[in-house]
Design a protein that fits this description.
Elements lengths: L29 E6 L3 E7 L5 E8 L3 E3 L2 E3 L2 H23 L8 E6 L5 E3 L18 H11 L8 H10 L10 E3 L1 H10 L3 E3 H4 L5 E2 L4 E2 L1 H10 L9 H4 L2 E3 L10 H7 L10 E2 L3 E2 H8 L8 E5 L3 E6 L12 E4 L5 E7 L4 H16 L6 H12 L10 E3 L16 E3 L8 H26 L6 E5 L8 H10 L2 E5 L6 H14 L6 H9 L5 E4 L3 H27 L2
Parallel strand pairs: 1-6, 6-13, 6-14, 9-12, 15-21, 21-22
Antiparallel strand pairs: 1-2, 2-3, 4-5, 7-8, 10-11, 15-16, 16-18, 17-18, 19-20, 22-23
Helix pairs in contact: 2-3, 9-14, 11-12, 12-13, 13-16
GO molecular function: kinase activity
Pfam families: FGGY_C (PF02782), FGGY_N (PF00370)
InterPro entries: ATPase_NBD, FGGY_C, FGGY_Carb_Kinase, FGGY_N
């Protein structure tokens, strides 16, 4: 069967918080919070789906004992800091404490591994999506299931721990993701939205639950291991968008808001991953739609009308928050390398006592990329800070290379790094468009990569040879998308689908701005990709030799 063509990808840009002008808010207040890779963001919206106030907290992962992780205490201190900023902004704008929230939704960086014992103690540090330590497990499970199991999926982490004979496996009582963990602690409910659950273990699209046949295959394969649990006993219950996922308990309210202003009993929707919230925030949950989320990592999500002909280790099969099958191209590395160079430039301008904001710096650097030579001055880079499964790397070594006759200037330097960020996504997308004959008419983009007007949008259009659209919306990306899913739960009509709710209520009055690929841009990127393939051999040597 042939996969469905894609019709579209949006960018959601935050509006100023000063739009909150009415002293008395009518209707339901809905909160969306997302644990991203570098920021925890909270957005409170009203019945018009516009943000009233927002809050954020920056955090970073750490490489400890060979695993990328975040301290569990950082989860709660970061959540409380983001919520506190939001609550203070609400009090300043409306003259009263934020005490009542009708609905709340939590999302987090996709998948990973959080395992707990019967006393609710964390057995090993949180293992994030960024780890590429599960190649053996992912390979074996992919062969067993005849279904691609990526390294970052929870089942890969769990089975790799079993293969490693890790002592904690026998004590497991509950396994979940970051979004599922936070939701559990605030409600007491061990549940997960189907979109995020599809990154723990394959989902049966007919039932919207974990695939029973493959569950049984896993049980048979692991029967000899020292454990007295079954997979479905330790995994969360799977829910779909619109279902109730519990209420905020008194203990949960204090965890979220230690000040005590927030009352318990808020309804919570199923927790989701950042892939699902990106789909909601871009109205890309219906068949024949797609989106690209471009930040620290990058992934495209294509909602399929028909199944792919085959499975590919470069393509993840997940679902929308409503359970529709979706092809996902996920790259571990995207803007980290660009951000690192930008920090170096910021250090320089600060050392010169120049008054340049980070926002102005990024805008200047991105706009400069549009002045580059056609061949980027024969500069090359690889942006791999961590492993990259699409190209077969378990580890990364960020590299920048120039030839003796290269033209090293700022424009060529910046476009080289932007092209490098797009290269791995291009490799994955080519599988869908060339091997599976998926017609991509337009992508809807969101994330920090698109904040500088037109630059990221145009360069991605050229790289992927597809029209890329962005949409100015009263949202803030992922946390806004999570708030929309919570709003859907409490505001949907009888038998109203998520697709209908988003299209007819949330996005009905919004227009997208689209940029088409140019022949010159496509040619420039195609030439870059030929050099990039050779650069991957240099990266392979660097990984082997530079320890």
């Amino acid at each position: 069967m042939r996969a469905s063509p894609i019709s579209s990808i949006y960018y959601v840009e935050a509006k100023d918080e000063s739009m909150a002008t009415e002293k008395n808010i009518q209707g339901k207040k809905v909160l969306g919070i997302e644990f991203g890779s570098t920021r925890i963001k909270a957005v409170l919206i009203d019945d018009r789906y516009e943000p009233l106030v927002s809050g954020a907290h920056e955090w970073e992962n750490h490489l400890i004992d060979g695993f990328w992780t975040y301290g569990i205490d950082e989860v709660w201190s970061g959540l409380q800091a983001a919520y506190k900023e939001l609550a203070e902004a609400y009090k300043e704008s409306y003259g009263e404490p934020l005490s009542e929230i009708d609905a709340i939704g939590f999302s987090g960086m996709m998948h990973g591994y959080l395992a707990f014992d019967k006393n609710e103690s964390l057995l090993v540090p949180f293992r994030t999506w960024r780890n590429t330590t599960t190649e053996e497990a992912a390979s074996q499970l992919t062969e067993l299931f005849a279904f691609n199991i990526p390294q970052r999926w929870s089942i890969s982490h769990l089975y790799q721990a079993m293969l490693n004979n890790e002592d904690h496996v026998k004590d497991i009582d509950f396994v979940t993701t970051l979004a599922g963990y936070v939701h559990w602690k605030l409600t007491g409910e061990k549940v997960l939205g189907v979109g995020e659950a599809s990154g723990m273990f394959p989902i049966d699209s007919e039932t919207g639950q974990f695939d029973e046949k493959r569950v049984q295959q896993f049980e048979e394969k692991t029967a000899s291991y020292d454990k007295d649990w079954k997979l479905l006993d330790v995994f969360p219950k799977v829910l779909t968008a619109g279902e109730s996922a519990g209420q905020l308990t008194a203990e949960g309210a204090k965890l979220l808001d230690p000040s005590g202003d927030l009352n318990p009993a808020s309804l919570l929707c199923p927790p989701e991953g950042d892939a699902g919230t990106g789909m909601a925030a871009t109205n890309s949950v219906a068949e024949r739609t797609g989106n690209v989320s471009a930040g620290t990592s990058v992934f495209s999500m294509i909602v399929l009308e028909e199944a792919l002909n085959d499975y590919y280790t470069e393509i993840d099969m997940v679902t929308t928050p409503a359970g529709k099958p979706t092809a996902m191209v996920h790259c571990n590395n995207f803007t980290t390398d660009i951000n690192t160079w930008a920090r170096l430039f910021k250090e320089l301008v600060d050392s010169l006592s120049l008054d340049v904001t980070s926002e102005k710096l990024f805008t200047t650097l991105f706009n400069k990329a549009m002045e580059a030579d056609d061949d980027n001055g024969q500069l090359m880079s690889i942006n791999y800070y961590s492993g990259e499964p699409i190209t077969g790397f378990e580890e990364g070594r960020p590299l920048f290379l120039q030839m003796p006759d290269s033209n090293l200037n700022l424009a060529n330097f910046m476009r080289t790094h932007i092209y490098s960020a797009l290269a791995t996504l291009k490799i994955g997308m080519d599988i869908l468009t060339k091997k599976e004959d998926v017609s991509v008419d337009q992508l809807l983009g969101h994330g920090g990569f698109f904040k500088t007007k037109e630059v990221g949008q145009q360069l991605m259009a050229d790289a992927l040879d597809v029209s890329v659209s962005v949409m100015e919306s009263a949202g803030e990306g992922g946390p806004w998308g999570m708030a929309l899913l919570a709003s859907y739960m409490v505001n949907k009509g009888a038998d109203e689908s998520l697709e209908t709710y988003l299209t007819e209520k949330v996005f009905s009055s919004q227009e997208a701005s689209s940029l088409d690929p140019t022949e010159k841009g496509k040619g420039n990127f195609s030439a870059f990709m030929k050099r990039y393939e050779k650069m991957l051999e240099v990266e392979e040597t660097a990984v082997k030799k530079m320890k």
